[in-house]
Amino acid sequence: MLARVVHLVIYTIVIAQPIFGILMVTSHDQSIPFFGLFSIPAFITLGEQVGATLGTAHAFTGWWLVLIALGVHIGGSLYHHFVRKDDVLKRMWRGRTDT
C-alpha cells in the first residue's frame, strides 16, 4: 500500500509542479519560456500575493516532496532487498517480468 501511495505522490508532483510554475510566472505578468525555443505570453494574472503563494507551493513540491518521496521509495526498495530478501529490487532494476 505504501508503494502505491508513494507512486501516487510522485505522479501528483509531476503534474502539479509545471502547473504551479506556469501559474506563478503568469501571475507576475511574465511570459513562460519554453526551453529557450519560444515564449508563451502571460495568459492569467492572479496578483502578486497569489503568485508568491504559488511560488512557495512550486518550491515545496519541487524540493521537499520529491526528496521525501524519493527517500521513501529508495528505503522501501532496500528494505525489500535486504530485510525481506524478495525480488522487488531486482524487478525494479530490470523491469517487471511477471505481467
Automatic annotation (TrEMBL):
<keyword id="KW-0249">Electron transport</keyword>
<feature type="domain" description="Cytochrome b561 bacterial/Ni-hydrogenase">
    <location>
        <begin position="4"/>
        <end position="95"/>
    </location>
</feature>
<keyword id="KW-0349">Heme</keyword>
<dbReference type="GO" id="GO:0046872">
    <property type="term" value="F:metal ion binding"/>
</dbReference>
<dbReference type="InterPro" id="IPR052168">
    <property type="entry name" value="Cytochrome_b561_oxidase"/>
</dbReference>
<feature type="transmembrane region" description="Helical">
    <location>
        <begin position="6"/>
        <end position="25"/>
    </location>
</feature>
<dbReference type="InterPro" id="IPR016174">
    <property type="entry name" value="Di-haem_cyt_TM"/>
</dbReference>
<keyword id="KW-0472">Membrane</keyword>
<keyword id="KW-0812">Transmembrane</keyword>
<comment type="similarity">
    <text>Belongs to the cytochrome b561 family.</text>
</comment>
<dbReference type="GO" id="GO:0022904">
    <property type="term" value="P:respiratory electron transport chain"/>
</dbReference>
<dbReference type="GO" id="GO:0009055">
    <property type="term" value="F:electron transfer activity"/>
</dbReference>
<keyword id="KW-1003">Cell membrane</keyword>
<feature type="transmembrane region" description="Helical">
    <location>
        <begin position="62"/>
        <end position="82"/>
    </location>
</feature>
<dbReference type="GO" id="GO:0020037">
    <property type="term" value="F:heme binding"/>
</dbReference>
<keyword id="KW-0813">Transport</keyword>
<dbReference type="GO" id="GO:0005886">
    <property type="term" value="C:plasma membrane"/>
</dbReference>
<keyword id="KW-0408">Iron</keyword>
<dbReference type="InterPro" id="IPR011577">
    <property type="entry name" value="Cyt_b561_bac/Ni-Hgenase"/>
</dbReference>
<keyword id="KW-1133">Transmembrane helix</keyword>
<dbReference type="Pfam" id="PF01292">
    <property type="entry name" value="Ni_hydr_CYTB"/>
</dbReference>
<keyword id="KW-0479">Metal-binding</keyword>
<protein>
    <submittedName>
        <fullName>Cytochrome b561</fullName>
    </submittedName>
</protein>
